[in-house]
């Protein structure tokens, strides 16, 4: 899946051939995400592409258990893939069944590096309705390190899940890239379905002033953040 610079006048994202979008999510922090499914993928796999004020910047693919199968940073061109043989695979099903899921897995990057991600998700029991869509709140925490154990980043806070879509959405959280935890919030504000005016729009609608546009990008898992 390749994404190049969008034509200046293009204001709608078109999924790759064989793929079909099912929801666009306008979020706080000047972000809009498009979720789509491709017929050639294994059952349960789905994709997301994130757009900011300057165009697309992040692409991710998850499986039916919301594992981070693949991601691509469009600014750097660095891709990451889930390494086989996870110590504790992430499991959306386990989260729904027991209320808590822990995970411990590794990712392999196209630049040759390897990282390890450990964390948990827990249902808080709180439900919220955003733009007519019912979501369930989770509490989460994760830490990403190098293969040797060196600190890379960490995050903690709240997220939301949609059971039928088997998706996580960002919530009020904190992220630490090495300088201490800083608050961020890219919670969903609006959900556009096929037929809605904003469906597949590449223009983020909320919080798009210069200050927020300059905030560090924290990708949610198919974000993850």
Can you give a write-up of this model?
- By secondary structure, this protein is mainly beta.
- The chain has one domain (19-213).
- It is 5% helix and 51% strand.
- The protein is built from two helices and 13 strands; from the N terminus they run E-E-E-E-E-E-H-E-E-E-E-E-E-E-H.
- A 13-stranded antiparallel beta sheet has the order 12-11-10-9-8-7-6-5-4-3-2-1-13.
- A hairpin with a 3-residue loop joins strand 1 (19-27) and strand 2 (31-38).
- The protein is globular, with a radius of gyration of 17 Å.
- The chain starts with 18 loop residues before the first strand and ends in a 12-residue tail after the last helix.
Summarize the entry for a quick read.
The chain is mainly beta. 5% of the residues lie in helices and 51% in strands. A hairpin with a 7-residue loop joins strand 2 (31-38) and strand 3.
Question: How many runs of DSSP E, i.e. beta strands?
Answer: 13
Give the oligomeric state.
single chain
Q: What separation lies between the terminal Cα atoms? A: 21 Å
DSSP strand content: over 45%
**How many domain regions?**
1
Regions with pLDDT < 50 over 5+ consecutive residues?
A: 1-9
Largest sheet: 13 strands, antiparallel
* Structural class label: mainly beta
Number of helices: 2
Note the topology.
Elements: E1 19-27, E2 31-38, E3 46-52, E4 55-62, E5 68-73, E6 79-82, H1 92-98, E7 100-109, E8 114-130, E9 133-146, E10 151-162, E11 167-176, E12 182-185, E13 188-192, H2 210-213
Antiparallel strand pairs: 1-2, 1-13, 2-3, 3-4, 4-5, 5-6, 6-7, 7-8, 8-9, 9-10, 10-11, 11-12
